Amino acid sequence: MSFTPRPSLVQIAEQVGVSPATVSRAFNRPELLNDATRERILATAKRLGFRPNKVGSSLRSGSTKTLGLLLPTLANPVFAACFEGAEARALEAGYSVMLATTGYDSQRERTAARSLLDHRVEGLILTVSDPSTSATLDELTASDVPFVLAYNESDSHPFVSVDNHAAAGDMVEYLMACGHRRLAMISGPLDASDRALRRLEGVRDRATRLDLPAPIHVSMPQHTAADRGRLKSLMASPKPPTALFCSNDLLATAVIAELSSLGLRVPRDLSVCGFDGMAFGALMVPSLASVHQPSFEIGSQACQELLSALGGEGSRSMRLPHRLFGGDTVASLSHQAVQPSHCHS
Amino acid sequence: MSFTPRPSLVQIAEQVGVSPATVSRAFNRPELLNDATRERILATAKRLGFRPNKVGSSLRSGSTKTLGLLLPTLANPVFAACFEGAEARALEAGYSVMLATTGYDSQRERTAARSLLDHRVEGLILTVSDPSTSATLDELTASDVPFVLAYNESDSHPFVSVDNHAAAGDMVEYLMACGHRRLAMISGPLDASDRALRRLEGVRDRATRLDLPAPIHVSMPQHTAADRGRLKSLMASPKPPTALFCSNDLLATAVIAELSSLGLRVPRDLSVCGFDGMAFGALMVPSLASVHQPSFEIGSQACQELLSALGGEGSRSMRLPHRLFGGDTVASLSHQAVQPSHCHS
DNA sequence: TGCATGAATGAAAACGTTTGCAGTTTGAGT
DNA sequence: ACTCAAACTGCAAACGTTTTCATTCATGCA
Fold this sequence. Notes:
2 copies of one chain form a homodimer.
Chain A (H helix, E strand, L loop, with lengths): L8 H8 L3 H9 L6 H13 L6 H8 L4 E6 L5 H16 L3 E6 L4 H13 L4 E4 L8 H8 L4 E4 L8 E4 L1 H14 L5 E5 L6 H16 L6 E4 L8 H9 L6 E4 L2 H13 L9 E6 L12 E4 L2 H16 L7 E3 L2 E3 L20
Helix pairs in contact in A: 1-2, 1-3, 5-12, 6-7, 8-9
The first copy, chain A, binds a DNA duplex (30 and 30 nucleotides) through helix 2 and helix 4.
């Protein structure tokens, strides 16, 4: 039982009695070879379990066939879907993908980006907190590695996202169509997400345009968890909002759960909606009203743009269409209790 | 505006006036160098934006510092959490991770595994459909790349999982404690998930032990979606089950949604529970009863075992503790309508 | 003075590929 | 028989590191 390290090109070459170059061609430019030679090579390669070593190949050819993906967290199914979109497109193009998560932490963001660059990924898809202040992005620009932002919007860098401003506005319009006028926007920390900020502005602008009272904004300490106290005091105000617009679906879900523990039912006592359109929301009972962004496509398009940048064509920014999902967590105001019944003081 | 390709070791060496070897040591064995030399090297390296090329380094040293992760889908938050656990542990050890998803497709599984091997990942963490019949696993065994299964249980390969059989049994016991006796197990296609099979067996065995009537088993065409027809006919049987045990949380959620569209409320009309304990379930209203498996830890432990295998210590299989989460989708039978009211024919 | 010692560096050979160039063979056309 | 192209294959030099083995030089010590 001898230990055999994985064979290399030259071992195969020796076995078959040809030069390493020929073995290489058997895999990369098979059409150049004599049929018989090619078969002989492929046969012994298979027999010895040989597969060309990409490390060697990358070094020589200068191409690793690897893309980097840098996302805040996979706990949010939105990013998970984005990954799958990017992976699918990458796969088609013969690329592998190296994934790293940042946990919304700009320090980890930097080091992870560096690590990916060290591995010589040929391009990067990433979501940052705020593209206009991101040190990571500066570093990336300095290196000559092409990258495409996903979800972020930016004037100075290529990105793929939805039109957050307009999308949030559309949700406001929908809420108004349902009879709601007193709105609140609930978000995580704004400095950690330019998306949340744009959505908030979208909400405010549209409310103004529609002559709605200025929406209240409540900021939660975390992106994805609802703070009981802030929620309680929001609902305890003299004229509480009749609809809560949460800046993402995970937050919306947490808010609904927290409200429920406060004795407030959705949508009976008030309406709640989110942003993201995660697949999951449609399965909730009641189903979660949300602004759907095509995450899989955001991933695959970002990858597409990256690939064309690699092809030397330069990549264009694009806003993919969003879609309003009018789930059951938003009800017509006429069906809601005018004043939540359970929430005192 | 001149185009400068990223500099290499030797460019730095020339700049500084030392040999490439010395530059290399400045990064890997700094203590060997004269302080002045080291500083000089590091300074110009920083000035020129040099970072050691891992491709070259991997080739020479034979170590890519990269691990492979092969999972069915990230759409299931369980696997996403597993990834994050593995990534965290890998990061600590200075490894990067290359992720690929298989979509539960054994063909993609094979090609993805091969691709990872071609990239010379040093080890693999993966979840397969059925470890006892997996061709991918055979290939992996043939190559001398260490791997650890996640979620799968196996006699012949190292794995990290929960004790699916016992865990499912515990849920049965809990359901019985709530007064349920007529149970149904709902799963996806069994041949695509050994976990589902083990859970089913766990359910049956425990039911037998507890003198419950044999649970009905209904298999859905997909892992994650509920087939309306099968659900309807299940509930239309003369003595329908009072509790449905779904083989995963995503499926449970889909089932609840489908039941709702059939006019059946959970838990008022019947109880439903899942398996996985995804974070999300606890936020649902009503919260999803489930068997919680520590996915993050499964990932990180699998990675830990892999690392120790790489360290030559050989890796041990382990079953991590599960935890019963008695969510609100399971109610005491006494609180349920004995016969679902809305389901005729 | 001579010599061992240790510290700091360099020379050069790998690692596994790819690829431009050149060489050989073959067969066809004249 | 001679030329020429086409088809096939080989040579050898890269790619960017790491690492073994020497080499140099200063230092301490007898």
